[in-house]
Structure formats: C-alpha cells, structure tokens
Amino acid sequence: MSDRLKCVLVVGLGLIGGSFARAVKMRGLADRVVGYDLNPQECQLGLQLGVIDEQAEDLLQAAAEADLVMLAVPVKATEALLETLAPVLKPGTLLTDVGSTKMNIIEAGQRVFGNLPACFVPGHPIAGAEKSGVQASNAHLFERHKVILTPLPETDASAVSRLASLWQALGADVLQMTPQRHDEVLAATSHLPHILAFSLVDTLAHEEQNKDIFRYAAGGFRDFTRIAASDPVMWHDICQANRDALLSQIDQFTTGLARLREAIDQGDSQTLLGIFTRARVAREYFSTLLSGTAYELKPAARSETPTAEPVPSQGE
Amino acid sequence: MSDRLKCVLVVGLGLIGGSFARAVKMRGLADRVVGYDLNPQECQLGLQLGVIDEQAEDLLQAAAEADLVMLAVPVKATEALLETLAPVLKPGTLLTDVGSTKMNIIEAGQRVFGNLPACFVPGHPIAGAEKSGVQASNAHLFERHKVILTPLPETDASAVSRLASLWQALGADVLQMTPQRHDEVLAATSHLPHILAFSLVDTLAHEEQNKDIFRYAAGGFRDFTRIAASDPVMWHDICQANRDALLSQIDQFTTGLARLREAIDQGDSQTLLGIFTRARVAREYFSTLLSGTAYELKPAARSETPTAEPVPSQGE
Asked: Residue limits of the Prephenate/arogenate dehydrogenase domain (chains A, B) (predicted)?
C-alpha cells in the first residue's frame, strides 16, 4: 500500500481472520492490528499468541477508528454484522471480507446499504486448512495462494488497488472476476468435489453391510474422502449461500456420470477410453498449472485467462 | 512357508510382478526367481536391476519347473495365459494372480480348466502406485498393505495357507473373502471413486468456458482429481471386468447424490447436516482404521470383521 495503514480491525479471529492479522503484523504493514471476536476467549488467546496488538472492547468504536475493516466471520453472520457497522464506518474506510461465496455477500450488502458502498471490496482468499480457530492461525497461510476480489462497477478502483496491494504484500496471487463468475468457479472446483465426497462417504456408510468396506479402502478412496472430514456446519452454510451455482454443477456432473454409466453398461470401449483419456489430459494440464503457481508467479500464464485479469500491484 | 520354494516364476514384470519378484529375492524366500514378460526388454531390464535371477527363455518350460507361478499380467490377458500354461502345470504347483477383479479371473479359469484347479489361489494385493513398469518395482511395496485371497470351496486349504504365509513373509496383511465380496468391496472403495474422479474432471473439462476453471482449483479438487491421472486402458479394462458390481455402486451413489441435491434445493438443513455429519463421523472412523493398519497389525480390530477372516500364519 502506498499509504501505510494506521489501524486494521479484524472481526472474527478464526483461522482466516487470525492468519490475516498475524500476516499484517509480521510484515509490519499497519501501526495497530485490533481484533474482535464474539467469543472473548478467542480474542484473549489471539492477544496472548501475538496474533493481534489489541482486543477491541467496543466493536463500533474500533470500526470507527479503523482505516481497514476485515470481516472474517461466517457468511451467514455477515449481513447482521454489516447492519451493526453501517452507522459508524467512515467514508474512506476500506471494507472487505473473506467469504467463500460472493453473490450472497453482495446481496446482503445491498440490503443493508442500498447500493454497495464504493469502499467495500468483496474478497475470497483460496486458502484453508483442516484446522480451525485462532490457535491454528499462520502468518504464511496466504503465500502463493490465490485471492479473488469481486468488485462491482460502482466499487472504487483505488480501493480495489489498495486491497490488492495489501494481499500481494502478504504473498498472495491476486485475481479479479465478477462475483457471478467467482461463485460458478468455486461451485465447480471446491463445492461440487466436497459434495461428492460427502455423498460418497455417506452412501457407503449408510448400509449396515458396508461397515467393513472402509477397512479395505484403497488409495483412491483415501484421497477422495479426506475432504469429507470438513466442518458440516460450514458446508451446510455454503450449500445455502451458493445454492444455484452448486445445483447447476451437480446437474452437469450427474449428466456426465450417467453418460459414463451408460458406456460401462454397454461395454462401449470407445466412449470409456475417450472419457478416461480426456480426464487424464485435463488433469495433467491442471497439474502443470498447479506446479507453476505453487512455486513461482507466471504472468505469461495468467494473461491467457481473459475472464480473470490479475490486478496489477501498485508497486510494479 | 514351511517348505522353502525352489523356483518362483513371475509372468509379467510390471510394477506388481516386479515388486513381488524383488521382495521374494530380497528376503531369500526362493532358490531361483525366474521372470517372463512379453516385452523382452522389460525382462532384460529386470535382470539388470536384480529384480529376477533369470529370464525365462521358454515360458512353458519355466512353468513346468516352477513350484510357484505368479500371474501378474493385465486381467484381460489372464485367460489366454491360463490356456497356454494349462498343459504343463504340475499338480502341486501353486498358481496365483494379482488381478484387481476376481470373479472374472475365476470364470476365465473355469472356462479353461472346467473346475478351478485346487492349487489355483486367486489373490489381489491392494497396493499400487502412480508409476508403472519394472523400473518402478519396489521390494517393500506390499509391506503393511492388504492382500485379499479369494479361494473357492474346492481350493486346496494348504495351498491357501502356503500362499498366505508367503505374502505375510513379504510384510503384507492377508485377508480372505469370497470373490463376489471382493468385487463388491473393490467396486465401492476403489472403482467407484476413480469413476467419479474421471467423470468430474471430464465434465469440467468438457466445456470451452471451463478451460480456466482448473486455474482456481482449491484443495478439495486437487485431492479429488489426482486419481484421475490413472491409466485409461487399465480403467477401461476394470470397467468391463467388474461391470455389474460397479454399475450397482454407481446407482447407489447416484441415488445418494440425488437425495443430497434435493436437500440443497429445498434448503433442508436437517438433512444436509445429517448427511455431512454422518460422512464426517464415518471418515473419522475410517481414519482411525487406516492409522491403525498403517503402522501396526491389530488382530483385535481384524476379528471384528466377520466376512473377512484373517488367514492365520503358519508361523504363529
């Protein structure tokens, strides 16, 4: 950021909020990092662990003093929080969030504010871990991970730039796309795989005779089901927040699976080999992308993606 | 084995056959380990790498001399191989295989021999890797992995015991079940997850607008699609070999997914939380099993499984 931050307020000291606070502190990007959590014990723990500099006694007063307010609360809690904060936010305060769905956050903002405030830049760091809580927070969590920003046409361009620079300073690779596209992409690459994993494990565990099936599980199954250990409440909320995009992805998948089932049933070798080979090629292409982005920034590769332009760093 | 093996013939020096040969040699369990492969270069490489002691010049002569013949060839090649070997196998020769489906191997044996020979003990080591070929073979591949034997009522019990002891000597955890149950279990825990992964990656890659979706893939997706990199031809063959059990598993899964889709569509929180929580509990139970079997043998846990009795080691 060209202007050093005076006061950053992080509302919600979970894994993501705590890691953001830690990262900003570790890199000395703000004079004060203030934390607030509905659970005062998490906040005190954050103070003890050095995740934050101060614990906010009064949320409204802290929000009024902050030049950046980061909302790191469950998606369902965002609307009520915006209503609480709306009266005290200064016009220049940069407001952002980390919700894993974006259309519903924007709709919540529109219900609260009418139009989304120009200084509200919705965001989503694609980073997470199986652990949760401030105890698990990690200042390096966002390094080499993607952060997607989803501004609207009315969003202030300089607010987007300032936020992008901050995330880049934390080591993240910042991309920008419409909130609709974000929700489609996440439905396909994260929400659908989780739903399939939950459904597979639940289906197998459903029948008494299957109790011992888990005992013989081969490698493929382990990979597949690891993600079914995720938090049920969080996934319940995601299913509601991104319902339409997720239903559309489930329907596409179901159609594809039915096509594959038909080929197995009919012994249609050509279709089977076609599907398996295309999947392998796509996966290999994907692996190349992943190995590239995990270890280095690849501006050339990024420019191939017309629907998701990287946000230029102010420092570049 | 109470009787030391004089001559082991391994037909097919791929990853599994090569690793079996290496493991028998490393542990000094046979006087001679002889290898045969349709591709003479693989066989010569096996000789150079010390995977085998000798390369069989004449398959029939080598089979006539062997007291253990291990068939480690693709499932589809097994019937022709059994026809070739049938005239020369000595009655006391222990014959086994490593095919990942068992009913079709047994049916192939019945077509060749009439009744399955008493000394043919079908087997399946649940071990594999993304690599293939004799170059990738590894003497430790089977350690702490499961080997499932699927004898028929007419199979010689002492042949089963001898083979079980050999696999145990290679570090494997040997279980026994009917070939039908084996094929059901593998359809559920290995073949279905692979089919879902292939189908997911193919469905996402299918549409032009999805080309860039892979770029944003979050953690869940990576786990999920890693297994879609498997060999298309092998999976084509498995889909034919285990067709009925696999179709049944796909149908169960599709029904379960439709139930979950309905709950998302209707915003049915109770059903969603029920499915996600059951899946998480099942997965955690499964993790406990896995962590147990990965590091230690757990006879108490094994005895909970009425349909799959462990085969006692002759040495116990």
From this structure: 6-294
